[in-house]
Amino acid sequence: MDKKRNIFLTVILLSIIAAVTAVIVLAVLAEQNTQKNARSYLATNTIVSQVIKKMNYQNLSKISDENISKYYNIPNGIITDSSVYISNRTDSGMELACFRLSSEDCAPILSDSISEHISSKNNENKEGSGQLAKFKTDTVYPYVFVAVASDSEAAANAFRETVNEK
Fold first, then answer.
1. Paired sense of beta strands 135-140 and 143-148, if any
2. Which end of the chain is more exposed for a tag (fewer CB within 10 A), N or C?
3. CA quadruple 51, 97, 135, 138: dihedral positive or negative?
4. 72/57 Cα distance (integer angstroms)
């Protein structure tokens, strides 16, 4: 009887050890997977600041987060971070903006908001319309970059470099 009981207790003890080991292994694997999926994102302000530095732009002012909605009509939930800089000079329509999408599905909605903004800006600013005709958007998910500048293509390249350096 003692031999059967010892075998039974040994089997139970080994089963408990195997179950605890399995739980620990699964927890470690889940944590590693979470760390891989939890990508660290650059702040959009950091991206635009780096583009400004790389391009040696001057006379640009950051629009406060509260005032971005005066420039871009973006529905709630579309972006998780944004940064907009505009020229201090009234004769320049120069603008740099960066948005971080909340999901890839939101890209068309943001694109419509950007097009609407550029169109309204074109109508308002006849002197800077030559520059507005040279606007460029670029996307490196989850970021969408907008450059309204005489060298908007180069600014978009600086954006791509900045995002890909991290």
1. antiparallel
2. N
3. positive
4. 22
Residue range 74-83, pLDDT digits in tens: 999 999 999 9
d(C-alpha 158, C-alpha 162), whole Å: 6
The count of other CB atoms within 10 Å of the CB of residue 72 is 19
| HEC readout, the chain | CHHHHHHHHHHHHHHHHHHHHHHHHHHHHHHHHHHHHCCCCCCHHHHHHHHHHHHCCCCEEEECHHHHHHCCCCCCCCEEEEEEEEECCCCCCCEEEEEEECCHHHHHHHHHHHHHHHHHHHHHCCCCHHHHCCEEEEEECCEEEEEECCCHHHHHHHHHHHHHHC
For residue 77 the two structure tokens come to 């939930």
Please give the Cα distance from 76 to 53 (Å, whole number). Answer: 30
Which amino acid makes up residue 101? L
What's the pTM?
Answer: 0.72
Q: Hey, CA dihedral for 73, 151, 57, 47, is it positive or negative?
A: positive
Torsion of CA 132, 124, 48, 57, to 10 degrees: 70
Distances (CA, A) of 63 to 7, 157, 164: 74, 23, 25
Task: Report in angstroms the alpha-carbon separations of 144 from 20, 98, 139.
Answer: 46, 6, 4
